[in-house]
Amino acid sequence: MGLLSILIFLPIVSGVLILALPKSLNTWYKYITLVACAMQLLLASYLYYAFKTGDGFAGVNQLSQYQYVENLSWIRLQLGSLGTLQIDYLLGVDGFSIALVWLSALVMLMATLSSWEIKTNLKGYFSLFLLLNASVIGVFCALDLFLFYVFYELMLLPLYFLIGMWGGVRREYASIKFFLYTLFGSVFMLLVIAGLYLSVTDPATGNHTFNMVHAMNPANYSNGAIFNLSSGAQIFGFPARLVGFIVVFVAFAIKVPVFPFHTWLPDAHVEAPTPISLILAGVLLKVGGYGIIRIAYGIFPEAAVSLSFWMGLIGVISIIYGAMNALAQRDMKRLVAYSSVSHMGFVLLGVASLTSEGINGAMMQMVSHGFLSVMLFFIVGVIYTRVHDRDIYNFRGLANHMPVFTGFVMVAFFASLGLPGFSAFIAEAFTLIGAFSSESLNGYVPRWMAVLGALGILLGAAYLLWTLQRMYFGKLRLKKEEWKQALTDVNARELTVLIPLAAFSLLLGIMPSLLFDVMQGSVNQFITLFK
Amino acid sequence: MLQQFPNISQSIADILASLSYLQGEFVLVVGFLTLIIGDLFLKKTRLFGLLCTLFTLFLSGIFLVLDLYASATATLIFNGMLVASATVIKFKLLVLVITLISLPFFYQDHRLRQHPKGINDFMSILLAMEIGLFLLIGSANLLMLYIGVEMISIASYLMVAYNAYQKDQAEAGMKYVLFGTVASAIMLYGISLIYGFTGTINLHGGAMVQGFEGVGFLASSISITMLLAGLGFKLSAVPFHFWTPDAYQVAPTSVVSFLSAAPKIAVFGLLYYIMPFFQEGDVFNQFIIAVAIASMLLGNIAALYQDNAKRMISYSAIGHTGFMLMLFVLPQGQILDVLFFYLAVYSVSNIAVFMALSYIENNYGYLQISQFKALGKQIPAIGACLVVLLMSLTGIPPMAGFVAKFLVFSAMVNAIDQSAVLWLLVVAVVTTVVSLFYYLKIPLNFFLKQSDANPLPAKSSALLAVLTIVLTVVVLLLGIFPGLLGGF
Lengths: 531, 488
Known about the structure:
The structure holds two protein chains of two kinds. Chain A is mainly alpha-helical. Chain A has a domain at 307-531. Helix content of chain A is 69%, strand content 5%. Chain A is built from 21 helices and four strands. Chain A has helices at residues 3-20, 28-50, 95-114, 122-141, 145-154, 156-166, 171-199, 240-255, 264-271, 274-299, 301-306, 308-328, 332-353, 356-387, 398-401, 403-416, 423-441, 447-472, 483-486, 492-510, 513-528, and strands at residues 67-78, 84-93, 234-235, 238-239. Chain A has a two-stranded antiparallel sheet. In chain A, strands 3-4 form a two-stranded antiparallel ribbon. Chain B is mostly helical. Chain B has a domain at 297-488. Chain B has 22 helices and two strands. Chain B has a two-stranded antiparallel ribbon. In chain B, strand 1 and strand 2 form a beta hairpin. Chain A binds chain B through residues 75-82, 85, 124, 146, 149-150, 153-154, 156-157, 160-161, 164-165, 171-172, 175-176, 179-180, 183-184, 187-188, 190-191, 194-195, 197-198, 226, 233, 235-236, and chain B through 333-334, 336-338, 380, 387, 391, 395-398, 402, 405-407, 409-414, 416-417, 422, 425, 429, 432-433, 436-437, 440, 443-444, 447-449, 481-483, 488.
């Protein structure tokens, strides 16, 4: 059993352990989860530390260059004239996925710490939480499309219950909306996966294969297959590969989410309990970004190139539209949710530029947004658990009342708006450089998009600083008198969440090479797909 | 007449040679007679009925398995009335397994047990139906097909109305009989037209296909459509579905569970065998496309509005029928394994759902989904099973239903150059998403909703719960290791 399998199955084993323990031990559940997640983070850190960089370890479309690879044959079904259904348990990471695996492990640990606020039905909560954890890590490690899809869909069920059972007032609506949106995209994607399976053959065995690395090499497509570049197959009168790209892109765009597929996000975030919000923002949105890079762009590069203007445009609209919406919110959690839409727009803009800077920036933005959005949601959670209210106008002058907390709020807000020295600055700067240089380098994304993206940063500063001013500055004035006692400053457990997140954001802001060095080879290799 | 006589010895030789192919059916006949006669003397001994049925089914199954290893090539038997082949035996075995799974379910059903004449009569009907199912799967002649359909129909009329003492139960039973008779009549008329147009009722041998080419489009369309209408009734495909929701709602749950699986397997098995004989013209494909799309849309959309759990599942069954019917626009050679896998997984999941619903009904008396509020606290294990099973029916990994759905999608995508396939796929995907919404209603009420009511469970045996859990584990295992299903 390889290290990645341990990373995936450790939470599942812990979840089964929790299910097996009697209810009388329900105080143990959170500690079991904590230990599992801590071990997972240690292991992920080791994997990140031992990750080899350089020319021979780029990955992307070179299966031999992936690291920690595990390959077991999983399903072999004889299907008559359809041939043998060959599904492999194929895991491996390259520069794109290792960073996200590590980020997931970190966010899961933070979410566990934040789960102390959950008081009801602990057995159900922690076992579902661990199942979610396993499937998220699985998504980033899977290199077989079928396996990827299994993990991808496996995330939905635990999330449905985690939002639906422990969420806020409108939790039923939010959870079903989230489930339906995601499923709508992903079932169409399943058709494309079936098409890819029927088109791609394993060069070694000659069987059809779900291997996504093989699917990135045009030579592996059999003649006349629907997704073969030269077959000229059409779907509804459009080239098949273009349709395939759009379908896969939409499936992941719903997940990211980018405008106009984002409407599930504010509802899901607002209704979800704080730890689930952390996971949603910190990791699940990245699944969308990762899928766009790895599957949509990686497998259909020429279709992606032909649509890069529209990709960039959607990214820019998300940046501006998300920020404008955030400006208009009274509910803190909704504000942070819309800021996620805005920040994830940068990922799309960076990827659309298809320049080294843009893609590095996009990946940096995903990791950075992982730290910062988790921090922001946790900050909202700190206030909400104390007084069960999130309306910005019900709070004023918190700075004097909760000085330490306000310190972290300021760090998180300034980091999020792109203050130099924090990771978001590097990420957004690189993304915009990429978008700006694209017109002269490859002509995929026009300059004005970069300009509009920069405007988005300005809007980001506006809503964050305005919130800071409204809630934290001035004289203490709260909606109810008893809130004064309830709003105590952060405790030790909350500090253990906030301090590492702030530190990592600062660390990546000062030493971005910690991440760039790991990704460099993969990003360069990725760009060659589009030549 | 006289010149026919020389053939007699040949016919008799053929019949004698054919007898060995029907051992499974003969066992059923013997079991059926033993049960009826034995029941006369051993009044109301439940054990006798159970043992007799169980023994008959097992023995029949053993013969089928032996035949499976013996017969490699398809053989026509009884002067071309029936066909024996490995495929036919596989479908028969599937029906048999489904019957065996249903057997304990019948014995747990309060309504069947409360019948004044006991359950033994019901068991003899079941065995008779089994014979009908086997004959239908193996028929190679339109007359045989009609006899098979009628045997199934009559047995299922009796089953649905087995203890219909209330008005609405009798109404549903009556509706079922009336619709069924009309459908049979239409089918018979279609068969007589086919005979008139082509001069043969033998499916094999090419005479029928040639005959259709000779009579022109309109005549062949009408006759084929009428024949398929009768089969569509048994499949409860739109627009022949009107009886389904009513019958499902009021019939004993175990009967509904059985009728939603076994006849469907038999008719699909038959349809699989006869499809190449009718696929020559456009009619068959167009009929299938229209019925498949209508069934998927209507079944899934109507299910959205149901509050009665059994009614909802019955509409979802219509949707699943449409989904499976899609496959029949493909060439025969491409669909067998996919169809078989889907049927097996669908039947097992569906029966397990009905078992769970029956368990709830027996314990709490709840039939409406809105009554299930907060039941997850009382019976979390059944709730978890229902989640797994319903997600399997939706097609969410890692449940077996996902693999089944994916196999159907793959087979369809493989033939995407057919223009209708694309539309079928789009409808299939959209209705899959729709189906999630109503399937989730049960977990929603079970786990998400709060309730003040604190229902006291009635004492009821745990056998149904155990069976549900076992079948749920099977569904999960088949999802992760689909190769476990024999025949692959």
